[in-house]
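Hi support team,

I submitted a single chain yesterday and got back a structure, but I'm not sure I'm reading the token output correctly. Could someone confirm the output below corresponds to the sequence I sent? I've pasted both exactly as they appear in my results page.

Thanks,
R.
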Amino acid sequence: MSGRGTTSTTSLVIWLLLFGLVFTWSAIGPKDRLTWMLEVMPAIIGIIVMAATWNSFRLTSLLYWLILVHCIILMIGGHYTYAEVPNVDWLNIVFGDGRNNYDKLGHLAQGFIPAMIAREIVIRKKVFTSTAWRNFFIVSCCLALSALYELIEWWVALLSEEAADAFLGTQGYVWDTQSDMFLALIGAVTALVLLSKSHDRQLERL
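Hi R., thanks for writing in. Yes, this is the structure output for that exact sequence:
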């Protein structure tokens, strides 16, 4: 995961160390163990998939670091529950007052990072010849992922009343589901606008 777009041993060790430290901290005394398991599961699945594809489909360094950021967001949210993450008043500047907005940061990342994952896969697999259709597909995938996550939250709420409030994190906001998906849309579009050029340069060096 060096600046050239390839992966160095030192960067890999740093990546794994950071992941391991935050994961261990997150797992020690979380507010609700079931909620923690639900929230960090995507991070666990992600590192398993990356390990399994390390030799066959190694990613760009940009993507590995973005995935780490997303994992850390998930693990922090899992430790405290999203509605009770401390010291996030600064998020009110962006998302407004009256609630803990850490979950909104998580949904923004839910569009931002998956957009770059999808972009790397479709470019390297040469799925599209049109940039416009490629971007449309990427944004659609991010919205589909966001919708799936909202459905999972709904199913968890139906199956487990104890973990429902902590996992949903609606905090009484009636438009929580719609705003979550809208933030995923904003995240996906923002990622494509801001990172496409630097991502292309790393892809050329693979």
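A quick pointer for reading it: Residues 9-205 form one domain. Let us know if anything else looks off.

Best,
Support desk
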